[in-house]
Amino acid sequence: MPVRVGWMTVALLAVFLFCADVRAAEVKIGMMNIQKIISLSDYGQAATKRFQARGKELEAKFKPEQENLIALQKDIEKKSSAWSEEVRADKIREFQKRQRDFQVKTDDARFELKQMQDKELEPILKALQSIVEKIGKDGGYTMIVEARSGLYFDQSIDLSDTIIKRLNSTLK
Fold it and tell me: Other CB atoms closer than 10 Å to residue 128's CB: what's the count?
């Protein structure tokens, strides 16, 4: 038993001495908040305004049709007991057809807005890729991650403000 302990002690001592010569690579991690970058950058704010303006235009365009649908629904609810079965069925079919047409139009509008949003964000995302890469290389970062990918991070590693400044100067 004492011989085993002696050999184990010598082996452990050799491992510790060997490890003392090996330096651990420094790991430097940065974090960025893409949502913050988009919402606070000049280009992101302008893109958001354009997107919201188009959304309001479409909303205003559909409002009268939506109000007509609501009025027809209320009319059916109020008067259906006085109508014949045939009139009631016709009104319900008319409401359902108008509702489906309205749904198709609003789905098309949502699709248009999604395409617009993607088009507006494309220049930001392209610029971000090169900006983050340059910050990473210049700053000696091992990795820069998006804030949503982690549950916790120290605010001192947040590079969002630096990225926003570079993005503003890149996308004038």
Answer: 21
Q: Is the pTM of this model over 0.85?
A: no
Q: How does pLDDT run across 112-147, given as a tens digit for each residue?
A: 999 999 999 999 999 999 999 999 999 999 999 988
Q: How far apart are CA 125 and CA 123, in angstroms?
A: 6
State how many domains the chain has: 1
How many residues make up the chain in this entry? 172
- What domain range is 114 assigned to? 2-170
What is the amino acid identity at position 96?
Answer: Q
Q: Which DSSP letter does residue 167 get?
A: H
CB 131 within 8 A of CB 30: no
First to last CA, the chain: 76
Q: What are phi and psi of 30, to 5 degrees?
A: -115, 165
* pLDDT tens digits along 31-45: 999 999 999 999 999
Helical residues (DSSP H) of 22-139, grouped into ranges = 34-40, 42-79, 85-139
SS3 assignment, position 158? strand
